[in-house]
Write a structure and sequence with these properties.
Blueprint: E1 4-7, E2 10-13, H1 24-28, E3 31-39, E4 42-43, H2 46-60, H3 68-81, E5 87-94, E6 111-117, H4 124-129, E7 131-135, H5 156-168, E8 173-177, E9 183-186, E10 190-195, E11 198-201, H6 212-223, E12 228-230, H7 235-239, E13 243-248, E14 252-259, E15 262-263, H8 271-286
Parallel strand pairs: 7-8, 7-14, 11-12
Antiparallel strand pairs: 1-2, 1-6, 3-4, 3-5, 5-6, 8-9, 10-11, 10-13, 13-14, 14-15
Helix pairs in contact: 2-3
Bound molecules: 3-[O-phosphonopyridoxyl]--amino-benzoic acid.
3-[O-phosphonopyridoxyl]--amino-benzoic acid is lined by residues 35, 159, 185, 188-190, 209, 211-214, 247-250.
Length: 289
Amino acid sequence: MDKWVFLNGEFVPSEQAHVHIYDHGFLYGDGAFEGIRAYNGRAFKLKEHIERLYNSLKALWIEMPYGPEQFCANVEELLRRNEVKDGYIRVTVTRGVALGLDPRNITTPPTVVISTDKLSLYPKSMYENGLDVVTVATRVANPQVLEPRIKSLGKYLCNVQAKIEANQVGAGEGLMLTEDGYVAECTGDNIFYAKGGVVYTPPAYLGILEGITRRTAMDLLEGMGISVVEKIFTRFDLYTADEAFLTGTAAEVVPMVKLDDRRIGDGKPGPITKKLEKAFRDYIESGDW
Ligand code: PXG
C-alpha cells in the first residue's frame, strides 16, 4: 500500500480513495480547501488553517458534522499513519453528492478528503536570486461576485488562468490586480513591499486571501521592530519600492526582484526580505508555533 487517505470519516488506502462523479466539488467547484505544510512531523499553524477552512465552509453554508478540534485530530492521525516528517497536507471539503446545482438535492454529508504528499521544493536559485513577476490580465474576483477570503475551489479557476498567463511569458509568478487596478496578490502568494524601512501589504478587505504565512510574516516583522502597514496601492509603488517579497504556504518567504521587467530596488533580494527569511526559518525550527 502506498499511503493512507482520510475520506469521509475513514482512513482508507490511497488507491481506494475515490470520490463520486457527481460530487459537487467536481461538478461545480462547490467546496473549500486548505494546503498546509508539515515540518518535523507537525502541521504548521494547523489550528489557523482549520479555522480558516471552517470560516470558508460557514460562508458557503456547508455544514460539517463535527467541529474543528476533531478535524485537527484527523489531520494529526493521518500524519502519524503516513509517517510524514516534512511534507504537504491537502484538505478538501465539498458540499456532497448530487447531480444538479440545487443544494437541496444533496443527501450525503459533506465530502471530506485529507491527503499527504511530498513537497516539490522550489529551486534554491529562486530564493537566492528572487522572482521575476509579471502582471496578468486575469483580475482577482470582485468580492461582490465571489468573496476572495473564502478559499473556495471555484475561485481557483481565476488563479489557474493567471498562472497560465505567467507561464506563457516565462515569469516566476503572476501579479493579480483588483478590477480597479490595485495590487491584490499573486496566484498562490500574498505580496509585500518595503519603502523607507516600512513594510506595506494590501488589506484583506481589498479582495485577497488572508494568508496564514502573511500573518506569520507580519508578526515576525513587528517582532523585529519593523512596522507593517496594510494599505491599498498600485503597481507604481512596487516599481519604485526598495524591495518586495511574497509569502505563502508553498513558497514560505520568497524575494521578488522584478515586476513587468522593471527591477525592484537594485534587482537583488533586499535586507528586510533576507532578515525575514531568516526569522521565518528560525521560527519553523523553534517548533514554537
Ligand atoms: N493568496 C492565494 C490566492 C493563495 O492561494 C496565499 C495567498 C497564501 O496563503 P497561505 O495561507 O498559504 O500563507 C494562497 C495560498 C495549492 C495551494 O494547493 C495553494 C495555496 C497554499 C497551499 C497550497 O495550490 N495558496
